Amino acid sequence: MTLFIKQNLRNQNHSSNDTVLDSSEKLHTVLIVLYIINLAGGTLGVIMMAQLLLQRRSQSVMTITITSLLVLHSFMLLSIPFRLSYYISGVWKFGRFACRLASAIIYLHMYATFAFYVAIIIARLLRLEFRKCYTAAWAGAVWLLGALVITPVLLSYYGTSKTYRSSECFQFHTELQEAHMVIANYCLVGVLVAVCAVLTGIQLTVIYRVAVKYWPDINSHVEFRAQAKSFFFILVTLVCFVPHHIFRVYYIQNYDLDKDHKLLLYNEVFLALTTMCCLDMLSNHVMTALLSCCMTFFTLLK
Protein backbone atom coordinates (compact mmCIF):
# COMPACT_ATOMS: atom_id res chain seq x y z
CA MET A 1 0.00 0.00 0.00
CA THR A 2 2.83 2.37 0.92
CA LEU A 3 4.64 1.60 -2.34
CA PHE A 4 1.44 2.32 -4.28
CA ILE A 5 1.05 5.74 -2.59
CA LYS A 6 4.68 6.64 -3.26
CA GLN A 7 4.33 5.63 -6.88
CA ASN A 8 1.22 7.82 -7.23
CA LEU A 9 3.04 10.77 -5.71
CA ARG A 10 5.93 10.29 -8.15
CA ASN A 11 3.49 10.16 -11.08
CA GLN A 12 1.73 13.32 -9.89
CA ASN A 13 5.03 15.18 -9.50
CA HIS A 14 6.16 14.01 -12.93
CA SER A 15 2.84 15.06 -14.45
CA SER A 16 3.07 18.46 -12.73
CA ASN A 17 6.62 18.99 -14.02
CA ASP A 18 5.53 18.06 -17.56
CA THR A 19 2.66 20.56 -17.34
CA VAL A 20 5.03 23.33 -16.23
CA LEU A 21 7.44 22.51 -19.05
CA ASP A 22 4.65 22.46 -21.64
CA SER A 23 3.36 25.81 -20.38
CA SER A 24 6.88 27.30 -20.51
CA GLU A 25 7.41 26.04 -24.05
CA LYS A 26 4.12 27.56 -25.18
CA LEU A 27 5.00 30.91 -23.61
CA HIS A 28 8.43 30.84 -25.28
CA THR A 29 6.70 30.14 -28.60
CA VAL A 30 4.37 33.12 -28.03
CA LEU A 31 7.39 35.33 -27.30
CA ILE A 32 9.17 34.21 -30.47
CA VAL A 33 6.06 34.80 -32.63
CA LEU A 34 5.43 38.25 -31.12
CA TYR A 35 9.01 39.39 -31.66
CA ILE A 36 9.11 38.06 -35.24
CA ILE A 37 5.89 39.95 -36.05
CA ASN A 38 7.24 43.11 -34.42
CA LEU A 39 10.58 42.86 -36.22
CA ALA A 40 9.01 42.31 -39.66
CA GLY A 41 6.09 44.72 -39.31
CA GLY A 42 8.05 47.36 -37.43
CA THR A 43 10.84 47.40 -40.00
CA LEU A 44 8.34 47.74 -42.84
CA GLY A 45 6.50 50.52 -41.01
CA VAL A 46 9.71 52.45 -40.31
CA ILE A 47 10.76 52.24 -43.97
CA MET A 48 7.34 53.35 -45.24
CA MET A 49 7.03 56.29 -42.86
CA ALA A 50 10.63 57.35 -43.47
CA GLN A 51 9.88 57.58 -47.19
CA LEU A 52 6.74 59.63 -46.50
CA LEU A 53 8.59 61.99 -44.16
CA LEU A 54 11.36 62.52 -46.71
CA GLN A 55 8.73 63.71 -49.18
CA ARG A 56 7.44 66.30 -46.71
CA ARG A 57 9.43 69.51 -46.32
CA SER A 58 7.54 70.94 -43.38
CA GLN A 59 9.18 70.87 -39.95
CA SER A 60 6.00 70.97 -37.88
CA VAL A 61 5.53 69.65 -34.36
CA MET A 62 3.95 66.52 -35.80
CA THR A 63 6.72 65.86 -38.33
CA ILE A 64 9.54 66.19 -35.80
CA THR A 65 7.68 64.12 -33.20
CA ILE A 66 6.97 61.32 -35.65
CA THR A 67 10.60 61.41 -36.78
CA SER A 68 11.63 60.94 -33.15
CA LEU A 69 9.25 57.97 -32.91
CA LEU A 70 10.83 56.41 -35.98
CA VAL A 71 14.30 56.73 -34.44
CA LEU A 72 13.05 55.21 -31.16
CA HIS A 73 11.43 52.30 -32.98
CA SER A 74 14.61 51.73 -35.00
CA PHE A 75 16.76 51.42 -31.86
CA MET A 76 14.26 49.03 -30.29
CA LEU A 77 14.06 46.90 -33.47
CA LEU A 78 17.85 46.51 -33.40
CA SER A 79 17.56 44.79 -30.01
CA ILE A 80 14.91 42.26 -31.08
CA PRO A 81 17.30 39.84 -32.90
CA PHE A 82 19.23 39.44 -29.63
CA ARG A 83 16.02 38.55 -27.81
CA LEU A 84 15.01 36.10 -30.53
CA SER A 85 18.41 34.43 -30.35
CA TYR A 86 18.00 33.95 -26.60
CA TYR A 87 14.42 32.64 -26.71
CA ILE A 88 15.17 30.27 -29.59
CA SER A 89 18.45 28.84 -28.28
CA GLY A 90 17.75 29.23 -24.55
CA VAL A 91 21.29 30.56 -23.98
CA TRP A 92 22.51 34.16 -23.80
CA LYS A 93 25.75 34.49 -25.79
CA PHE A 94 26.43 38.23 -25.81
CA GLY A 95 27.74 39.07 -22.35
CA ARG A 96 26.26 40.63 -19.24
CA PHE A 97 26.40 44.28 -20.37
CA ALA A 98 24.65 43.47 -23.65
CA CYS A 99 21.96 41.69 -21.64
CA ARG A 100 21.36 44.70 -19.41
CA LEU A 101 21.42 47.02 -22.46
CA ALA A 102 18.91 44.90 -24.42
CA SER A 103 16.67 44.72 -21.38
CA ALA A 104 16.92 48.46 -20.67
CA ILE A 105 16.22 49.45 -24.29
CA ILE A 106 12.74 47.97 -24.21
CA TYR A 107 11.81 50.06 -21.15
CA LEU A 108 13.44 53.21 -22.48
CA HIS A 109 11.59 52.71 -25.76
CA MET A 110 8.26 52.16 -24.01
CA TYR A 111 8.32 55.28 -21.83
CA ALA A 112 9.91 57.54 -24.45
CA THR A 113 7.30 56.40 -26.99
CA PHE A 114 4.54 57.07 -24.47
CA ALA A 115 5.93 60.58 -23.89
CA PHE A 116 5.91 61.35 -27.62
CA TYR A 117 2.38 59.92 -27.93
CA VAL A 118 1.24 62.30 -25.21
CA ALA A 119 2.96 65.19 -27.03
CA ILE A 120 1.15 64.32 -30.29
CA ILE A 121 -2.24 64.03 -28.58
CA ILE A 122 -1.88 67.28 -26.62
CA ALA A 123 -0.60 69.15 -29.69
CA ARG A 124 -3.67 68.09 -31.68
CA LEU A 125 -6.10 68.69 -28.83
CA LEU A 126 -4.82 72.24 -28.24
CA ARG A 127 -3.96 72.80 -31.93
CA LEU A 128 -0.45 73.82 -30.97
CA GLU A 129 1.99 74.86 -33.64
CA PHE A 130 5.44 76.26 -32.86
CA ARG A 131 8.25 77.65 -34.91
CA LYS A 132 10.76 75.24 -36.37
CA CYS A 133 13.51 76.27 -33.94
CA TYR A 134 11.27 75.81 -30.87
CA THR A 135 10.07 72.42 -32.01
CA ALA A 136 13.59 71.21 -32.79
CA ALA A 137 14.84 72.54 -29.44
CA TRP A 138 12.07 70.71 -27.55
CA ALA A 139 12.72 67.40 -29.32
CA GLY A 140 16.48 67.83 -28.88
CA ALA A 141 16.06 68.45 -25.17
CA VAL A 142 14.06 65.23 -24.80
CA TRP A 143 16.74 63.24 -26.61
CA LEU A 144 19.57 64.80 -24.60
CA LEU A 145 17.76 64.09 -21.33
CA GLY A 146 17.28 60.48 -22.32
CA ALA A 147 20.77 59.94 -23.77
CA LEU A 148 22.87 61.84 -21.21
CA VAL A 149 20.89 61.40 -17.98
CA ILE A 150 18.28 58.64 -17.94
CA THR A 151 20.13 56.00 -19.99
CA PRO A 152 23.49 56.21 -18.09
CA VAL A 153 21.71 56.14 -14.73
CA LEU A 154 19.56 53.18 -15.77
CA LEU A 155 22.53 51.20 -17.08
CA SER A 156 24.52 51.98 -13.94
CA TYR A 157 21.96 50.47 -11.57
CA TYR A 158 19.68 48.21 -13.63
CA GLY A 159 20.53 44.54 -13.14
CA THR A 160 23.61 45.19 -10.98
CA SER A 161 22.34 44.60 -7.42
CA LYS A 162 22.11 40.80 -7.77
CA THR A 163 24.29 38.03 -9.22
CA TYR A 164 23.00 36.32 -12.37
CA ARG A 165 24.17 33.43 -14.53
CA SER A 166 26.09 34.46 -17.64
CA SER A 167 24.03 32.05 -19.79
CA GLU A 168 20.72 33.62 -18.71
CA CYS A 169 19.21 37.01 -19.50
CA PHE A 170 16.12 39.08 -18.68
CA GLN A 171 16.03 37.49 -15.21
CA PHE A 172 16.12 40.73 -13.19
CA HIS A 173 12.92 39.90 -11.31
CA THR A 174 14.79 39.25 -8.04
CA GLU A 175 15.44 43.00 -7.75
CA LEU A 176 11.73 43.46 -7.04
CA GLN A 177 12.54 42.45 -3.46
CA GLU A 178 14.03 45.91 -2.91
CA ALA A 179 11.64 48.53 -1.52
CA HIS A 180 12.78 51.38 -3.77
CA MET A 181 12.19 49.24 -6.87
CA VAL A 182 8.66 48.43 -5.72
CA ILE A 183 7.92 52.12 -5.09
CA ALA A 184 9.39 53.16 -8.44
CA ASN A 185 7.31 50.55 -10.28
CA TYR A 186 4.09 51.57 -8.53
CA CYS A 187 4.77 55.23 -9.38
CA LEU A 188 5.36 54.44 -13.06
CA VAL A 189 2.18 52.36 -13.20
CA GLY A 190 0.13 55.08 -11.50
CA VAL A 191 1.42 57.89 -13.74
CA LEU A 192 0.97 56.00 -17.02
CA VAL A 193 -2.52 54.68 -16.21
CA ALA A 194 -3.70 58.04 -14.85
CA VAL A 195 -2.41 60.03 -17.85
CA CYS A 196 -3.89 57.48 -20.25
CA ALA A 197 -7.28 57.59 -18.50
CA VAL A 198 -7.42 61.40 -18.52
CA LEU A 199 -6.38 61.70 -22.18
CA THR A 200 -8.86 58.99 -23.20
CA GLY A 201 -11.72 60.82 -21.52
CA ILE A 202 -10.76 64.17 -23.03
CA GLN A 203 -10.18 62.72 -26.50
CA LEU A 204 -13.53 60.90 -26.56
CA THR A 205 -15.28 64.10 -25.46
CA VAL A 206 -13.62 66.11 -28.24
CA ILE A 207 -14.43 63.47 -30.87
CA TYR A 208 -18.06 63.42 -29.74
CA ARG A 209 -18.37 67.22 -29.97
CA VAL A 210 -16.72 67.31 -33.39
CA ALA A 211 -18.97 64.47 -34.62
CA VAL A 212 -22.11 66.30 -33.41
CA LYS A 213 -20.91 69.57 -34.94
CA TYR A 214 -20.21 68.19 -38.41
CA TRP A 215 -22.75 65.36 -38.59
CA PRO A 216 -23.52 63.74 -41.03
CA ASP A 217 -20.51 64.90 -43.11
CA ILE A 218 -17.90 64.20 -40.44
CA ASN A 219 -15.60 62.22 -42.76
CA SER A 220 -15.08 65.23 -45.01
CA HIS A 221 -13.71 67.47 -42.24
CA VAL A 222 -10.00 67.66 -41.46
CA GLU A 223 -10.61 68.33 -37.76
CA PHE A 224 -12.46 65.04 -37.27
CA ARG A 225 -9.79 63.05 -39.10
CA ALA A 226 -7.05 64.69 -37.02
CA GLN A 227 -8.82 63.83 -33.75
CA ALA A 228 -9.44 60.28 -34.97
CA LYS A 229 -5.70 59.88 -35.64
CA SER A 230 -4.95 61.17 -32.13
CA PHE A 231 -7.33 58.62 -30.67
CA PHE A 232 -5.41 55.96 -32.60
CA PHE A 233 -2.32 56.70 -30.47
CA ILE A 234 -4.46 56.38 -27.33
CA LEU A 235 -5.66 52.99 -28.56
CA VAL A 236 -2.06 51.88 -29.07
CA THR A 237 -1.32 52.89 -25.48
CA LEU A 238 -4.39 51.07 -24.16
CA VAL A 239 -3.56 47.88 -26.08
CA CYS A 240 0.24 47.80 -25.75
CA PHE A 241 1.23 49.63 -22.54
CA VAL A 242 -1.65 49.46 -20.05
CA PRO A 243 -1.93 45.60 -19.88
CA HIS A 244 1.77 45.31 -19.02
CA HIS A 245 1.51 47.85 -16.23
CA ILE A 246 -1.62 46.30 -14.73
CA PHE A 247 0.00 42.86 -14.78
CA ARG A 248 3.16 44.34 -13.23
CA VAL A 249 1.18 45.25 -10.11
CA TYR A 250 -0.10 41.67 -9.88
CA TYR A 251 3.40 40.32 -10.51
CA ILE A 252 4.97 42.45 -7.76
CA GLN A 253 2.33 41.37 -5.26
CA ASN A 254 2.70 37.67 -6.12
CA TYR A 255 6.42 37.53 -6.81
CA ASP A 256 7.18 35.41 -3.73
CA LEU A 257 4.71 32.74 -4.90
CA ASP A 258 6.30 32.38 -8.34
CA LYS A 259 8.39 29.30 -7.54
CA ASP A 260 8.37 27.86 -11.08
CA HIS A 261 8.96 31.31 -12.71
CA LYS A 262 5.70 31.03 -14.62
CA LEU A 263 4.70 34.60 -13.74
CA LEU A 264 8.08 35.76 -15.01
CA LEU A 265 7.31 34.33 -18.46
CA TYR A 266 3.86 35.93 -18.47
CA ASN A 267 5.52 39.22 -17.57
CA GLU A 268 7.87 38.77 -20.53
CA VAL A 269 4.88 38.18 -22.83
CA PHE A 270 3.21 41.40 -21.65
CA LEU A 271 6.55 43.18 -22.06
CA ALA A 272 6.79 41.83 -25.63
CA LEU A 273 3.29 43.21 -26.21
CA THR A 274 4.61 46.71 -25.48
CA THR A 275 7.00 46.43 -28.42
CA MET A 276 4.03 46.04 -30.76
CA CYS A 277 3.68 49.81 -30.61
CA CYS A 278 6.44 49.83 -33.26
CA LEU A 279 3.65 48.79 -35.66
CA ASP A 280 1.94 52.15 -35.05
CA MET A 281 3.33 53.83 -38.18
CA LEU A 282 2.28 50.95 -40.41
CA SER A 283 -1.14 50.74 -38.75
CA ASN A 284 -1.59 54.52 -38.92
CA HIS A 285 -0.79 54.46 -42.63
CA VAL A 286 -3.35 51.69 -43.16
CA MET A 287 -5.95 53.58 -41.11
CA THR A 288 -5.37 56.73 -43.17
CA ALA A 289 -5.89 54.75 -46.36
CA LEU A 290 -9.11 53.24 -44.96
CA LEU A 291 -10.41 56.69 -43.99
CA SER A 292 -9.71 57.94 -47.51
CA CYS A 293 -11.60 54.96 -48.97
CA CYS A 294 -14.54 55.63 -46.63
CA MET A 295 -14.60 59.30 -47.62
CA THR A 296 -14.59 58.35 -51.30
CA PHE A 297 -17.38 55.83 -50.71
CA PHE A 298 -19.60 58.34 -48.90
CA THR A 299 -18.93 60.93 -51.62
CA LEU A 300 -20.06 58.47 -54.29
CA LEU A 301 -23.21 57.68 -52.32
CA LYS A 302 -24.18 61.34 -52.42
UniProtKB/TrEMBL annotation:
Cellular component terms per the entry's GO annotation: membrane
Locations listed in the record: Membrane
Transmembrane helix recorded as keyword: yes
Any one Gene Ontology molecular-function term assigned to this protein's record: oxysterol binding
Membrane topology category: Multi-pass membrane protein
G-protein coupled receptors family 1 profile domain boundaries: 44-288
Transmembrane segments: 32-54, 61-84, 104-126, 138-158, 183-210, 231-251, 271-301
Swiss-Prot/TrEMBL keywords: G-protein coupled receptor, Membrane, Receptor, Transducer, Transmembrane, Transmembrane helix
Pfam families, per the entry: 7tm_1 (PF00001)
PANTHER family membership: G PROTEIN-COUPLED RECEPTOR 141B, G-PROTEIN COUPLED RECEPTOR
Protein name: G-protein coupled receptors family 1 profile domain-containing protein
Record organism: Cyanistes caeruleus (Eurasian blue tit)
